[in-house]
Design brief:
The protein is built from ten helices and five strands, in the order αβαβααβααβαααβα. By secondary structure, the chain is α/β, with parallel strands linked by helices. Strands 2-3-1-4-5 form a five-stranded parallel sheet, with helices on both faces. α1 packs parallel to α10 and α2 crosses α10. The N terminus is likely disordered.
Amino acid sequence: MKPIATEFTKFSLDALDQECSLEKDEYKNRLKDAQLRLLKAQLALRDINRAVIIVFEGPDAAGKGGAIRRISEKLDPRTCRVYSIVKPTPEEYAHHYMRRFWLRLPSYGQIGIFDRSWYGRVLVERVESFATTTEWKRAYDEINTFEKLLTDDGSIIIKIFLQITKDEQLRRFKKRQEDPYKHWKISDEDWRNREKWQQHIESAEDMFRRTSTPYAPWSVIPGNYKWFARVETLRILCERLEKEFNLQ
């Protein structure tokens, strides 16, 4: 199956849907192979002075958590950390918005996975007016500078945006609401965010244009089919790290 993810794209997923489904056996085989490749890359990482930073963004219910779980479940947990980024605490509000991310950056030889990230400043904070227009417009340069500092120091930044259609999001929301084991995943805020769907799309497209750089490009993955999105995410990670570490 040919790769689907692209570095910067608009959200026209309808034409891709037929290409993005996987049979269960193929999914399991590709997942197992990719997880082993990723583990080998992690073992290579621990012997060099570099860090890996993996950033996930995308709409609510796009499958970020499921993809992160498949990335981390076979890795050495001693050198891999997952950070779920939520609303800043009062203490964090008292500092520059980037400070809390600096404090969570992985050490050399380690992997840091961010379930949402510093891009909240130009996404949800922009749409919900939590940041002023001056603040979120200024953030593009701040973010690019931040990532350039890290990559110049040897860090590898891999940015994944999982995108689903609005109809698919609604289907997943309803499923979460009806399932007592998943009800905690849905909130009134999630429903309110749907009312500003187009504004979120526009802010994401601006983000790609302004922050998809040669040293830290965005990869956009269609996420309507969860199995496909997971193995495609792993493929991107493996290929990038194998290239960086000269692994065969």
